[in-house]
Design a protein that fits this description.
Layout: E1 3-8, H1 22-40, H2 44-51, E2 53-64, E3 73-83, E4 87-96, E5 101-113, E6 119-120, E7 152-157, H3 171-179, H4 184-189, E8 190-199, E9 208-216, E10 219-226, E11 229-240, H5 241-246
Antiparallel strand pairs: 1-3, 2-5, 2-8, 3-4, 4-5, 5-6, 7-9, 8-11, 9-10, 10-11
Length: 248
Amino acid sequence: MIYTKQCTVTGSSCDPEVKLSVIAVFNTVEDCVTELLGSMGIDGVTAMKKYGAMWVFSKNNIRIFRRPEWLEEFEVRCFISKHSALRIFVDTEARDKAGQPLFRSRVEICALDLETGKIRKPDTLGFRTEMEHPEPLEGLDFFRFPKEPADTLESVTVRTMNLDYCSHTNNIEYVRFILNTYPSEELRERAIEHIEVHYTGQTFEGDVLDIGRLGRDGRELFFITCRGKPIVSCSIAAAAAAARNAAF
């Protein structure tokens, strides 16, 4: 099954460049993944109420070709591209009205039992193989993060509005914490082309998160820990805005 959705860049989703913000790209992907699963009857709310489990994003790999501008219309399509014994993979692609790609994403999702906290097989939450559309998007293989120490850049505290409906820190909030380490002018000058996030732990209201950063092979690597425990790894690659604009 392929889920499609028509979208418009609203004022609340714009950044200071009056384009769809990187956070809004993540929100668009998450909404489409949620709506796709909802159309199949295997969404997160159903998982909680019917199966005693919850879906969690374990990885998200996003490539951005162009961020649409305020009031620009675009179409998003979303589908389950493959699965393993314990995970499903959902691909999302946004295209402009001319059919050109705006951004692509691959999300890895796993299910956790609400009582034991252990990983559940997708088929115990209603997933069936025939739900899969086995034509994955290209260029979205996941990155292997190095295990290197990183000096703490800054620390943040999880607050009420950072929580999701399961009372955990929402996965997109970690991206917001990381992007907030950049001055706004730097984000204007360097257009993010690729951002990949791996989620390895959960945090809750009141937790203090330490954000560390490393530079490696043209990427900036960020690591979020809580009381020394790894929570999130994030890779960001960007290009100078002048070079990006010249490509379009």
